[in-house]
Amino acid sequence: TGTPRGVSPEMHLEVTMLFEEYGRLLDADSLEEWTTLFVPDCRYEIMSRENIEQNLPLSLMLCDSRDMLDDRVYSLREANVFNIHYDCHLIGPVRVTPQGDGWAATAAYSLFQSIQAGETRLFSVGRYHAELRRVDNVLRIVRMRVVVDTGAILTLLATPI
Amino acid sequence: TGTPRGVSPEMHLEVTMLFEEYGRLLDADSLEEWTTLFVPDCRYEIMSRENIEQNLPLSLMLCDSRDMLDDRVYSLREANVFNIHYDCHLIGPVRVTPQGDGWAATAAYSLFQSIQAGETRLFSVGRYHAELRRVDNVLRIVRMRVVVDTGAILTLLATPI
Amino acid sequence: TGTPRGVSPEMHLEVTMLFEEYGRLLDADSLEEWTTLFVPDCRYEIMSRENIEQNLPLSLMLCDSRDMLDDRVYSLREANVFNIHYDCHLIGPVRVTPQGDGWAATAAYSLFQSIQAGETRLFSVGRYHAELRRVDNVLRIVRMRVVVDTGAILTLLATPI
Amino acid sequence: MTAPAGADALSCYTFPAADCSRIPYGMYRDPDVFELEQERIFRGPIWNYLALEAEIPDPGDYRLIAVGDTPVIVNRARDGSLHALVNRCSHRGAEVQRNLHGNTKVHTCCYHQWSFDLTGKLIGVPFQKGIKGVGGLPADFDKACHNLQRLRVETMNGAIFGTFCDETPPLEDYLGPVFSHQVRRLFHKPVRVLGYQRQRIFGNWKLYTDNLRDPNHGGLLHMFQITFGIARLSGTGGARVDADGKHNLSWASQGGRTAQEDGAEGGYAGTDRGDMNIRLKDPSLLRYHKEFPDDLTLAVTSLFANAALQQIGNTLAVRQLRPRSADEFEIVSTFFGYEDDDEAMTRHRLRKANLAGPAGLVSMEDGEAVELVHRAIVRDMDKHSIVEFGGRGPVVDQENLISDVPMRGFWIYYCKLMGIRAGETA
Asked: How far is CA C65 from CA C26, C74, C134, D66, D359, in A?
């Protein structure tokens, strides 16, 4: 309990700022920039708490490399038709713990979606579980598992959570 | 205004991590572990803003010792029948101020509840008012008053906020 | 990406605490104290994302001086009739970057409103864009632009976001 | 033909007075009444305000709006002509245009790629003839019969109006001389759109049209304008109506009395209104730069049924009312100045926008007032509102502000369109 050992305020701030950037880039629809937060051999997945609690492996979204993540974003830009919306991510305090040669980090999130005409709905709540590593002096996401409590997706799930 | 005197980034981080753990343990339904964040002679209460503004002492939930808090959790496990749900706590920036031989801390929260099938609703918003003390080198909760703006409880209030 | 250069944990904490105070004072209906967070020649404006994305200059609320901000609060106290409510601001991680002789800071927010009888609704989500300066050793708001995703205001917009 | 859905609902409520000085609460809460209004009011013989030409200046420009609760595209075709089209694909009923605004050559439905030109004509059906004679539409399918539904459109000085109904008289006749003048007054030169404000109010839309036609509330509810002398009930002002009484102009002229002038003997005695001791730190917000040939400093023109043209000092806007259900409506306000405004005037208008809209210092109360009524009339549907300020009987111009006569004008015309006989049942 309390502050995890070995994580300084500087380190904690750096991780928090990575989460901040993650949410801010998604909210600004800067998806191409958002994917640069990940390492090439990353894994990004969105899983429902329902499946996790039953030890079922199915994801709502799964990209097991940066290329696949880029493809997903490219497809959103070029091929998919989805509800036009603005995202707003609220991210809670981040817990950071050293893990191997990097860090594990977790935080709760709530995600609100607004339509162009300015009506907002709660879209999703849940928790980020990330593994981070420093690459060329920059903190990057190796693995991000988004566990959604809101497993019953409203309308559709196009843009990442 | 601004940063309270005498609270270092390290101290602030430690308190924030205590709040983070508080919310995370509740969200994970680790209620028994959650009660260990409190000192034996703690006080935990949930009060509506409505009652507070009228100087009325009634709580929605009141435990004036760690034993009573444990009893409440035990009862939830063994005796109570309530809506099966997942919690998701979002906690805002924490204000920490030295107070006596410990600290006062406050933060806004929003709490979302999801049913097993993955539908989420806003359950409660309000503010934590905590008194903290270091015991055996670990930060503990001496008193937690949760002031809920959402005084009209949706369905029922089983798990702590 | 990552931690902005030149912003120490102390500085980041100070800015975060300014945002915390901003939200806490609004939630406590301490509007007169809230205006003291601003410099005399401040600018406070609430703009919809809809207008911003079309390069349209119209605000929902615009005060281009501390006097005008004080007038707005004074009018709320003395002249306006509006829905009686409690506010609850949840503010996400704050990004701080040095800018000129001060700092730029941004954070996502969600704002919940509750009626006296304790029913809560999501009122607004969006993002703060602030410019800060240290005046007489205290951090103050020079400019605050609140960009609301929730451009379709529920009922009315009386108290500041 | 069977009666439209909801027609029976009208028999539940009585208007005991022919001058509509009593309004049954049920008219504000009954979903069946709302359904009937869509047919008989918003798709009836009226002109609905749609948009400003300045919002769609170039060929291909479009915006999405609503007429009643029907989604509508307003756009400008290649030849510069203006069109209003129901935003619903003639194939399966999907929204054809999904962007709130933009510029396009055609509107293409994303579902099956049917495409329509800017006049609403169906011009493209992919695989209409199938492939190699297999699949596709029947040979006798006639594209010309499946255009987007069109509204008839007329404009006046850049304000675009539309109607669903063939019997609606020409716009100029519908507005009448007084209200044609008001439209031309506000749009006397090219406008520049400054931006939009949106407000969702959880009450019936007619509580808002009532409010617009009730000068009496302005000086009692909106204390900002009372206190700072924008318009007091004791000041110079009044209301004008057209021959039907359906439209209303609430006006006040420069030199409206201040609290100081009113003194303790004014009509505000006994209320907590009209306090004489409050001042603004920055009174520049109240400054008025005269810009019209007349002396009106406040002119709110309410056009039956969905529009209000607003001049509050130099704060200019047009508000479009979009009913959503019996219990909710949206107000979309388009604020504007004029193309020849200099930078200082634009800045002045942007600051003065603080007076109007959902956060308006002299308008925010309307949202609250509507909801206060809507909540409290939940039961007792055949009990009535009282509308007698300014007297009973014929609806005529009012030379003072202590009147809600124009509200009765709205209801008399409303009853006529809805087929309600007022005053037959005591």
From this structure: 19, 14, 17, 38, 18
> Which pLDDT tens digit goes with each residue over C11-57?
999 999 999 999 999 999 999 999 999 999 999 999 999 999 999 99
Give residue-wise pLDDT tens across range C45-97.
999 999 999 999 999 999 999 999 999 999 999 889 899 999 999 999 999 99
Smallest CA–CA distance, residue C67 to chain A, in Å, is 30
**What is the complex's ipTM, to 2 decimals?**
0.94
**Beta-carbon count within 10 A of D16 CB:** 16
In a domain, D198, yes or no: yes
Rounded to an integer, what distance in angstroms lies between the CA atom of residue D285 and that of residue D287? 6
Binding partners of A (≥3 Cβ pairs within 8 A): B, C, D
Q: What are the Cα distances from residue B124, in Å, to B44, B129, C136? A: 17, 15, 39
Q: Which amino acid does the sequence have at A13?
A: L
Q: CA separation (Å) from B98 to A82, B12, B84, B134?
A: 50, 11, 39, 12
Q: What is the pTM for the complete model shown?
A: 0.95
Q: Within this chain, do residues D188 and D58 fall inside the same structural domain, yes or no?
A: no
Report the DSSP beta bridge partners of residue D249.
D240, D301
Structure tokens at D200: 């969702």
D410: left (phi over 0), alpha (psi -120 to 50) or beta: alpha
Q: What are the residue ranges of helices labelled H in chain A?
A: 9-27, 31-35, 49-53, 66-78
Are A129 and A18 in contact by the 8 Å Cβ rule? The answer is: no
Token pair of C35 as six digits: 């205006």
Distance from CA of D349 to the nearest CA of A (A): 23
Residues of B in contact with A153 (CB under 8 A): 118
Judge contact between C60 and C156, C-beta under 8 A.
no
Which of D24, D1, D2, D68 lies closest to D420, judged by CA?
Answer: D24
CB contact under 8 A, C62 and D354: yes
C56 touches chain D (CB under 8 A): yes
Nearest to A122 by CA among B122, B125, C148: B122
B83/B80 Cα distance (integer angstroms):
10
Q: Please answer yes or no on whether A84 and D98 come within 8 Å at the CB atom.
A: yes
Touching status, chains C and B (3+ beta-carbon pairs under 8 Å): yes
In a domain, D164, yes or no: no
The residue out of D124, D155, D186 marking a domain boundary is D155
Are D142 and D288 part of one and the same domain? no
Interchain pair C125, A90: CB under 8 A: yes
C63 contacts on D by Cβ (under 8 Å): 354
Domain that holds residue D372: 177-418
CA separation for the pair D258, D227 (Å, rounded) = 7
Distance CA D27, CA D373 (A): 13
Residue D14 lies in a domain: no
The residue among C11, C60, C65, C9 whose CA lies nearest residue C42 is: C65
β-pair partners for C124: C111
How many angstroms separate the CA of residue D205 from the nearest CA in chain C? Answer: 13
Total domains in the fold of chain D: 2
Q: Which of D99, D198, D200 sits opposite A84 (nearest CB)?
A: D99
**Contact at CB, A91 and C93, closer than 8 angstroms:** yes
Shared-domain flag, residues D255 and D120: no
Interface of A with D in 83-102 (CB under 8 A): 84
**CB atoms A17 and C106 under 8 Å:** no
Pair (D318, D401) in one structural domain = yes
Chain B residues touching residue C96 (CB < 8 angstroms): none
Q: Is residue D346 part of a domain?
A: yes
Q: Is C117 on the interface with D (CB under 8 A)?
A: no
Contact yes or no, A with B (3+ CB pairs under 8 Å): yes
Q: How far apart are CA C65 and CA D354, in angstroms?
A: 13
Q: Are D216 and D401 in contact (CB under 8 A)?
A: yes
pLDDT digits (tens, 9 = 90+) for D342-353: 999 999 999 999
